[in-house]
Amino acid sequence: MTHWQPQWPVPLQGYIALGTTLKQVGSKQALEEVDFHLVVKVARMMAVVGVKHLAVVSSMGSHPWSPSHYLRCKGKMERSLTDMRFERLLFARPGPLLGERETLRTDEQALKRILPFISPFLAGPLADFEPVEAVRVAKSMIKTLTEEKWPGRFDFRILPGKVLNQG
């Protein structure tokens, strides 16, 4: 999006699925650069070219005052994007994401092994903790942003993990 040409058609929708882990980047500052600053920068560029509807992958438990640095970055990102006043703004807040990755994470491999045993207990308020396939999150974001009725302009929604796992 750094070389947008004025003659190109303006997309109505935008999707952002950027994120990293502390282990991948090595410092809290580097994590914040990706999970907060880079996401906000991409959203601003989308707003400049005319995107009206935006869907973003965030995280279950995100909050700008969270004691967890990761969840605080996600919460600050959500607040910044809400302030941009997209006509439709959707935050997907999945539990642990499953799917193909360039590098395998040992915690995810362990989770896949024990998931069949713990899944029956992830009901009610614990349903948001159930891991979800990244493809399912993407499909739910597209469906919600494009197909569902929204009550008006400048509206935002949150898709929690249990909803993403149903989609």
Summary, kept brief:
With 167 residues, the protein is α/β, with parallel strands linked by helices.
Q: How is this fold's topology laid out?
A:
Blueprint: E1 13-16, H1 22-25, H2 28-49, E2 53-57, H3 69-83, E3 88-93, E4 97-98, H4 106-118, E5 132-133, H5 134-146, E6 155-160, H6 161-166
Parallel strand pairs: 1-2, 2-3, 3-6, 4-5
What does this structure look like?
InterPro entries: Him1/Fmp52 (IPR014843), NAD(P)-bd_dom_sf (IPR036291). The protein has 167 residues and is of the alpha/beta class. It has a domain at 12-88 and 133-149: 3-Layer(aba) Sandwich (Rossmann fold), CATH 3.40.50.720. 44% of the residues lie in helices and 15% in strands. The chain has six helices and six strands; from the N terminus they run E-H-H-E-H-E-E-H-E-H-E-H. It has helices at residues 22-25, 28-49, 69-83, 106-118, 134-146, 161-166, and strands spanning 13-16, 53-57, 88-93, 97-98, 132-133, 155-160. A four-stranded parallel sheet has the order 1-2-3-6, sandwiched between helices. Helix 2 packs parallel to helix 3 (69-83). The protein starts with 12 loop residues before the first strand and ends with a helix. The model has no long low-confidence stretch (mean pLDDT 85).
